[in-house]
């Protein structure tokens, strides 16, 4: 038994397919992949962190909710920074007019 498999109890292949469909790595939020342990047993692992039994797993839904929450917090911080500084901390990219684009291209 090598280091990659010594902590793995494994799953049925049906369980493993459900895990990679619904979960990501708890450590890095990377995708999980299935590998063969034996005829009836599948291992699930993150490429970066190793077996899911060690790295842990978190549902993709939880990760999406956390990302949405982080975006809302970021937007709030940017809004508050605009009150503190005269120049926008994270200026929005201005859309260029057709004339400005042509001028930049030398026409
Ligand atoms: Zn990972």
Task: Spell out the key features of this protein.
2 domains; 5 strands; single chain; two-stranded antiparallel ribbon; alpha+beta
Detailed description of the structure:
The chain is 43% helix and 17% strand. It has 107 residues and is α+β, with helices and mostly antiparallel strands. It folds into two domains: 13-60, no CATH class; 63-104, no CATH class. Strands 2-3-4 form a three-stranded antiparallel sheet. The chain is elongated and about 65 Å long. It binds zinc ion. Zinc ion binds next to loops.
What's the layout of helices and strands?
Layout (H helix, E strand, L loop, with lengths): L12 H10 E3 L6 E5 L5 E5 L3 E2 H4 L1 E3 H25 L13 H7 L3
Antiparallel strand pairs: 1-5, 2-3, 3-4
The structure holds zinc ion (ZN).
Nutshell version of this structure?
By secondary structure, the protein is α+β, with helices and mostly antiparallel strands. It has four helices and five strands; from the N terminus they run H-E-E-E-E-H-E-H-H. The longest helix has 25 residues.
Nearest-integer average pLDDT: 86
Question: Which ligands occur here?
Answer: zinc ion
Shape: elongated
Over all CA atoms, what is the radius of gyration?
23 Å
Number of helices: 4
What is the strand tally? 5
Taking strands numbered 1, 2, ... along the chain, how are they ordered across the largest sheet?
2-3-4
Number of domains: 2
Straight-line N-to-C gap: 68 Å
Structural class: alpha+beta
SSE string, helix = H, strand = E? HEEEEHEHH
Percent helix, as a range, is 40-55%
Poorly predicted sequence stretches spanning 5 or more consecutive residues: none
Strand count, sense and barrel status of the largest sheet are: 3 strands, antiparallel
| Strand composition percent | 15-25%
């Amino acid at each position: 038994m090598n280091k990659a498999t010594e902590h793995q109890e494994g799953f049925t292949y049906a369980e493993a397919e459900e895990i990679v469909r619904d979960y990501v790595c708890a450590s890095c939020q990377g995708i999980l992949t299935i590998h063969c342990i034996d005829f009836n047993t599948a291992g699930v692992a993150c490429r970066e962190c190793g077996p899911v039994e060690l790295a842990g797993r978190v549902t993709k839904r939880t990760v999406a909710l956390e990302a949405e929450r982080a975006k809302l917090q970021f937007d709030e911080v940017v809004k508050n920074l605009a009150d503190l500084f005269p120049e926008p901390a994270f200026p929005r990219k201005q859309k260029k007019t057709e004339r400005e684009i042509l001028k930049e291209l030398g026409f």
